[in-house]
Structure formats: structure tokens, C-alpha cells
Design a protein that fits this description.
Elements (H helix, E strand, L loop, with lengths): L2 E4 L5 H9 L7 H30 L5 H4 L3 H9 L3 H19 L6 E4 L5 E8 L2 E5 L8 H14 L3 E5 L9 H9 L4 E3 L3 H10 L9 E3 L4 H10 L4 E2 L7 E6 L5 H12 L6 E6 L2 H15 L5 H11 L1 E4 L3 H11 L3 E5 L3 H5 L7 E4 L5 H6 L25 E8 L2 H17 L3 H15 L1
Helix pairs in contact: 2-8, 2-9, 4-7, 5-6, 5-7, 6-7, 8-9, 10-11, 10-12, 16-17
The structure holds nicotinamide-adenine-dinucleotide, L-histidinol (HSO) and zinc ion (ZN).
């Protein structure tokens, strides 16, 4: 059973703190395993990647077969049923339209001293897109990674996707073809992250790695940060639903299960103002689990990490939600906009009863690669900006140097950095000659 908490209970603070600090993806054994995998890939390159693929994805790989060929992509894409292709096209068009609005503007202006200042944005050269594929297949995550990268103008799009038992997923390959991925490798997990970060004989290193994955992928991204950029920690999925009693308990139950079915480490939480409604939702989850295809994953997730929290009012709900900083937040209440205004930390908010989180996973438009494990306190969902860098620009004139240079010289002196001061003073001296 999930945990049942109520803010009216004397031990609420202790139990809520325990819920917040549950270690779903930071277990030391995961990080130790990932450190060893990264070290192996750095030392033995392609050979290590092939060995690890046999161990974790159960098929024999060679450096020559690591890259999925254009012929394989075309053959697989050709197998996709027209209605599935049309659904992918609908999703791709909506995701593209949403992300095109994120393109940032360059700025340039001349200030009162005559200095010209500004910045300009440009894409990274090569992006490594991780598409998960261990327990489920994720064509939608191909679109969510590749479309913003393309909109940003990235030239080289490297995609890694595990293919357990060597089986290629046609929808994944069609999505990659549709969204302009330039190289696809059939590798996953920490070994794929290490290969993209450090490079091997077969895979040239990238500059930035993005995309979601399980605890091993998330830990590997943490570890390679610095060698490459990463988007965020996008690990096992989470959903928090805030619902009043004016909802169908079954709808809320399947919303909770929609994220629990991703991974046994996923987390689904309901906050409600009505304890009886909370119980009705929990009962509906139990009933749904009897026939859910992925009950073997969703059941343990709900049992081990699920929670139903009863609160006095929605104000209290918003405060708890902000402490949880969930990846996805559904507001199934009468006035979702008013409640949304009180939310300060959440990866994505879904407003009202007619906005199930699953719409956002596929076709809403916003990105579904989102921060997990409370990292929405300091990071945002994947966007075009994740694939871009900002370079600042400054041009002085003799007049502007005369105006602001002396302050620079004084600051350099105060920092005992003589050459800094001299480089400005030499120019001021010339002007004063
Ligand atoms: N936060 C987000 O934006 C978001 C989006 C989509 C999916 N997700 C999450 O992505 C995850 C997908 O997980 P998945 O497992 O289906 O695919 P995955 O590709 O993330 O993981 C599969 C890989 O994990 C590695 N692995 C598995 N067991 C291992 C072990 N014992 N030791 C070392 N490596 C091991 C293997 O290399 C395997 O190829 C889920 O947790 C899901 O919730 C998150
Ligand atoms: N809910 C996931 C993000 O946590 C994204 C996804 C893809 N497919 C289905 N769901
Ligand atoms: Zn999902």
C-alpha cells in the first residue's frame, strides 16, 4: 500500500520529511556501478561498450554494427503503420511550433559612453541525445530531444538508444528520421553516456548530452558533467496530483499510474482536501492494477513510493507541492489558474481536469524531458536554450575607454593584478599624450 499522511496528524512533519528524502535514484550502489562503467569505457572504448551491451542488453555488438545504418532506418521506418506515422507527425508539428517560440534574440546597443555592448546566441556543435529503451520504447523522447536541438541549429545530432535483445523499434527510428537525427547508435545506459562524453573510435565525442533515462543514466550524466554539458537530471518519472473531491477517482488513479508504469523507481503522489476521496483514489488504483499490463512495474512503484496526503486546504497543498518540486504537477481543482499562481517549483503544470499529464508526454507541445528528484527547485524542462550558448560582445571607443578605464585600473590595483591595470593604463596613456 502507498503511504497515507494527513497534515492533521501529530507525526506529519516527520513523515513528510521522510517522504521527501526517499532515495529513489541516488543509491550508492547505482553510483558505484556507474563510476565503474564510465572508467571502463574511458579505458577500453568500443570494446567496453560492446561488452557492457552484451551484459545489460543481451546481444552481441561489434564496433562495426554499433551505428544503425541508413538502410536499417529506412527499412524500419517503412514498417510503421500510417496511423502511427500520422500520430508522430502530429506530435512533431506541435512540439516544433512550441519550441520555435523559445528561440532567443541577440541584443546589441551603444551606451552613454559610446561603448557597444551585447550578446549573441549560437548552437553547440554536437549534441548527444539519450533516448531510453530498457523497460519501454520512447519515440516521443526522440522528438522531445531532437526537435529543440534542430530548432537551435545544432549541426550534429547523435542519438543513443538501447535495443534490448538487439530488437530495433521502428517508431523510434522513424521519429529520428523525421526530426533530423544525424547518427544513431544502438547502445544505452551509463556506457552510452560515457561513449558520447569521452568518445570512442566509433563515436566522436559530443559537447552536450540531453535526455531522460533510468537511475543509471541519470547518475552517468551527473558524473560526465564538466567534460560535457548536460541538460538536467531527468531520471525516473514523477507525478503529483492535487485534486479536490469534485473529480472521478478513477481518472486520478490512472493519472497516478501513468507515471508509476514507467519504472519501479517512479513516484506518484496525490494531495487532496478530502480524505474519503483519497481513499477512493487508492481503491481505484488497486482495482486498475488488476488489469494494467505493466502492473509488475506500476505496482511496486505505487507500493514503495506512492503517497496520499490529506490537507486542510489548497493553500496548504501548494506549500507541500513546492517542497516536493515535482516533475509533473496536475491541478485537478475548480480554479487551477489560482492554484498555479502559488506554485513556485514544478517541472510542468497541467491545469484542470481535462489536462491529463499524458497529453504532455506526447502531443501537448511543451517538452516532456523534465527535472526529477526535486531538481525542479533549480532546473527547467528541456528547451531550445539547452542547445545554445550565449557569447557576450563589447567594443570600446577611445571615448568610452577614457570614461570607464580609470575605474578598471583602480579595481586592478585593489586586486593586486598589475598586468590588468597596465593593459588599460597603456591605452589611457596613449590617449593622454
Ligand atoms: N524525467 C523525464 O523527463 C523522463 C522522460 C522519459 C522517461 N523517463 C524515465 O526514463 C527511464 C527509462 O528507463 P528504462 O530502464 O526503460 O530505459 P533506459 O534506457 O534509461 O535504461 C536502460 C539501460 O539501463 C542500463 N542498466 C539497466 N540495469 C542496469 C544495471 N543493473 N547496471 C548497470 N546498468 C543497467 C542498461 O545499460 C540499459 O541499456 C524511466 O525511469 C522513466 O521514468 C524520464
Ligand atoms: N512521462 C515521461 C517523463 O517523465 C515521458 C514519457 C514518454 N512517453 C511516455 N511518457
Ligand atoms: Zn510518461
Amino acid at each position: 500500500m502507498p503511504q497515507f499522511l494527513s497534515t492533521a496528524d501529530a507525526d506529519f512533519d516527520t513523515r513528510f520529511a521522510a517522504l521527501l528524502s526517499m532515495k529513489r535514484e541516488e543509491a550508492p550502489d547505482v553510483d558505484d556501478a556507474v563510476a565503474a562503467i564510465i572508467a571502463e569505457v574511458r579505458a577500453r572504448g568500443d570494446d567496453a561498450v560492446c561488452d557492457l551491451t552484451i551484459r545489460f542488453d543481451r546481444f552481441a555488438l561489434t564496433p562495426e554494427t554499433m551505428r544503425i545504418t541508413d538502410a536499417e532506418i529506412a527499412a524500419a521506418a517503412g514498417q510503421v503503420a500510417p496511423l502511427d506515422r500520422a500520430a508522430l507527425e502530429t506530435a512533431a508539428a506541435r512540439i516544433r511550433a512550441y519550441h520555435e517560440r523559445q528561440l532567443p534574440r541577440d541584443e546589441q546597443w551603444t551606451d552613454e559612453t559610446g561603448a557597444t555592448l551585447g550578446w549573441r546566441w549560437g548552437p553547440v556543435d554536437a549534441a548527444g541525445l539519450y533516448v531510453p529503451g530498457g523497460l519501454a520504447t520512447y519515440p516521443s523522447s526522440v522528438l522531445m530531444n531532437a526537435i529543440p536541438a534542430r530548432v537551435a541549429g545544432v549541426g550534429r545530432l547523435v542519438m543513443c538508444v538501447p535495443t534490448p535483445d538487439g530488437v530495433l523499434n521502428p517508431m523510434v527510428l522513424l521519429a529520428a528520421q523525421m526530426s533530423g537525427v544525424t547518427e544513431i547508435y544502438r547502445i544505452g545506459g551509463a556506457q552510452a553516456i560515457a561513449a558520447m562524453a569521452y568518445g570512442t573510435d566509433t563515436i566522436a565525442p559530443v559537447d552536450k548530452i540531453t535526455g531522460p533515462g533510468n537511475a543509471f543514466v541519470a547518475a552517468a550524466k551527473r558524473r560526465v558533467f564538466g567534460r560535457v554539458g548536460i541538460d538536467m537530471i531527468a531520471g525516473p518519472s514523477e507525478i503529483l496530483v492535487i485534486a479536490d473531491s469534485d473529480n472521478d477517482p478513477d481518472w486520478i488513479a490512472i493519472d497516478l499510474l501513468s507515471q508509476a508504469e514507467h519504472d519501479e523507481s517512479a513516484q506518484s503522489i496525490l494531495i487532496t482536501t478530502d480524505a474519503a476521496f483519497g481513499q477512493a483514489v487508492a481503491d481505484a488504483v488497486t482495482a486498475r492494477l488488476e488489469s494494467l499490463e505493466r502492473a509488475n512495474i506500476a505496482g511496486p512503484s505505487w507500493r514503495d513510493f506512492g503517497a496520499v496526503i490529506t490537507v486542510g486546504d489548497l493553500d496548504e497543498a501548494s506549500k507541500l507541492s513546492n517542497r516536493i518540486a515535482p516533475e509533473h504537477l496536475e491541478l485537478a481543482v475548480a480554479d487551477p489558474e489560482a492554484l498555479s499562481d502559488k506554485i513556485t517549483h514544478a517541472g510542468a503544470i497541467f491545469l484542470g481536469q481535462w489536462t491529463p499529464e499524458a497529453i504532455g508526454d506526447y502531443v501537448g507541445g511543451p517538452n516532456h524531458v523534465l527535472p526529477t528528484a526535486r531538481s525542479a527547485r533549480f532546473s527547467s524542462g528541456l528547451s531550445v536554450l539547452d542547445f545554445m550558448k550565449r557569447t557576450t560582445l563589447a567594443r570600446m571607443t577611445p571615448e568610452s575607454l577614457r570614461a570607464i578605464g580609470p575605474a578598471a585600473v583602480r579595481l586592478a590595483t585593489s586586486e593586486s593584478l598589475q598586468a590588468h591595470g597596465l593593459s588599460v593604463q597603456a591605452r589611457l596613456d596613449r590617449l593622454n599624450r
